[in-house]
Amino acid sequence: MNFTLEDPNNVSLWFPVNPSEVNIRRDKSFETISIIRGGELDVPQGVKVKEIAFSSFFPAVYDASYCKYQLLPDPQTAMNQLNTWMEGSDPLRLIITGTDVNVLVMLSAHNSSFKGGEPGDVYFDLIFRTWKDYRIRTLDESSGNSAGQTRPDIKLISATYQVQSGDSLWSIAKMKLGSGSRWRELYDGNRTVIGDDPDLIVPGQELVMPG
User: Fold this and answer.
1) 38 CA to centre of own chain
2) C-alpha gyration radius of the chain
3) Residue 209: CB partners within 8 Å, gap ≥ 6?
4) I need a surface site. Which of 112, 138, 165, 178 has the fewest CB within 10 A?
């Protein structure tokens, strides 16, 4: 299982130590209406934005018993990157391989702390809120453009994808093709690049997306 964050500029962060647990909070919103002689009535308004939270730490020194990889990021640099993302307005893609978590999120809060006897290590708590794309349309766009045609919002699938640290064929298929189950289709079209083992993909490999 890998925990990764990636921004629209392909800057990614692979968390070196897996959190012990992930908390996902889902709430339903209600509007409370007061009815004369009838008390209060809750009217459901829909599902609120989900919150995803987890805690871990950035170690200063590699330890094979809990680190996912050897080339560790500098703990303070990693925390500064998280802070930059939190202050920004672009959504991030949070991927937890081996689960269904492959969503666009905004980093809404993070806390960091240091512990005595562990110099250089930075502990953190992160809270994400799932992000939904929105677009404000003009009156002309709502009724059609100048040629009398509507303008559908179509998101084209990129022709190629460059493998990033922490990627798997399942996570790439989930992110780019909409379903992790299409990993076999992705592998079959890139077998000459990947080789005989679909679990061994290398950062920097250029994969061709299925049509």
Assistant:
1) 45
2) 22
3) 157, 158, 159, 160, 161, 176, 177, 186
4) 138
Q: Are 55 and 17 in contact (CB under 8 A)?
A: no
Architecture (CATH level 2) of domain 1-29+46-133: Beta Barrel (2.40)
CATH class of 157-211: alpha beta
Can you tell me which residue has the tokens 């805690």? Answer: 55
Instruction: Please name which of 63, 59, 55, 64 lies closest in space to residue 19, comparing C-alpha atoms.
Output: 55
Residue 85 pLDDT exceeds 60: yes
Q: pLDDT at residue 164 above 60?
A: yes
At 96-139, the pLDDT tens digits run 888 778 888 888 888 888 888 888 899 999 999 888 755 545 55
Residue 145, pLDDT > 70, answer no
- The share of the chain scoring above pLDDT 90, in percent, equals 20
pLDDT of residue 1: 82
Domain(s) of CATH 2.40.30: residues in the chain:
1-29+46-133
- Count of CB atoms within 10 A of residue 141's CB? 13
Q: Say which residues have a Cβ less than 8 Å from residue 202's Cβ, sequence separation at least 6.
A: 163
Check residues 195 and 141 and name the one with the higher pLDDT: 195
The pair of three-digit structure tokens given for residue 138, joined into one six-digit string = 């003009």
CA 67/CA 131 separation, integer angstroms: 29
- Encoded amino acid at 108, one letter: S
Residue for token digits 């871990």?
56
